[in-house]
Amino acid sequence: MEIISSKDNKKVKEARKLLTKKYRKNSYLIEGFHLLEEALKAGHSIKQIFVEENKLAKLTAMIGSEKSLTDLSVNLVSKDVLKSLADSESPQGLIAEVAIIEEVIDFSASKFLLLENVQDPGNVGTMIRTADAAGFSAVILLGETADLYSPKVMRSMQGSNFHLAIARMNEEECFAALKQAKISILTTTLSANSVSYKTVEESSFALVMGNEGAGVSDFAVESADKLVHIDMPGQAESLNVAVAAGILMFSL
């Protein structure tokens, strides 16, 4: 198998575009063996793989006999070429291009996490990973929430996007669907009308987490069945949104 050593190789240049949001229409990049293994287990379509020569044996051992290197369109690349495709400072020797699957949210499920205008990719990925760990059914991205397929979100999720349904929806349509399905909307806010999460008992609910600085929108507040908050006996004014989401998801 010939090694691609030029960053100007056509395949490499086309794949590198996927590091930029506007080009991620049909596919996106993931880094490392763990994420590739999770994608394969979940049956996602792998369009191609770029791997350093010294990592080829590891890749071959990982995929076993179920798929061949030809089936997965494996490209051997130099270390410099691999690094040009990576977003992290220390890439793990493998980059894969994965086809985007349009998820359909099943509103007959019971636990939903709604991220409204959450802009930090690390927060978005961490909350999705936590929702996966806490047994949530789906995550819905609203408004200006960070792109699910950005490399930083991918690293923070650690493969959880392959375990549960995640979709971006129009906010009005999302809340209307939740209400039609009789799912309680729990909007997080520190307003005077909110109640401690410890008093909330809901069998099915959608937890709304808002923007890091501005919090949730007026629309999310108006649409809520309950406004909830976390009691803070200390002197900090607020919690990081991902930390707050973790407390609420496991407690509720």
UniProtKB/TrEMBL annotation:
Q: Where is the RNA 2-O ribose methyltransferase substrate binding domain?
A: 29-104
- Which branch of life, at top level? Bacteria
- The protein's name is rRNA methyltransferase
Enzyme Commission (EC) number:
2.1.1.-
- Supply the source organism for this entry: Lactococcus lactis subsp. cremoris (strain MG1363)
Q: Name one GO molecular function term.
A: RNA binding
Family, similarity comment: Belongs to the class IV-like SAM-binding methyltransferase superfamily. RNA methyltransferase TrmH family.
Q: Which Pfam families match?
A: MRM3-like_sub_bind (PF22435), SpoU_methylase (PF00588)
Q: Which controlled-vocabulary keywords does the entry list?
A: Methyltransferase, Transferase
GO CC, any one term:
cytoplasm
Please provide the Gene Ontology terms (biological process) for this protein.
methylation; RNA processing
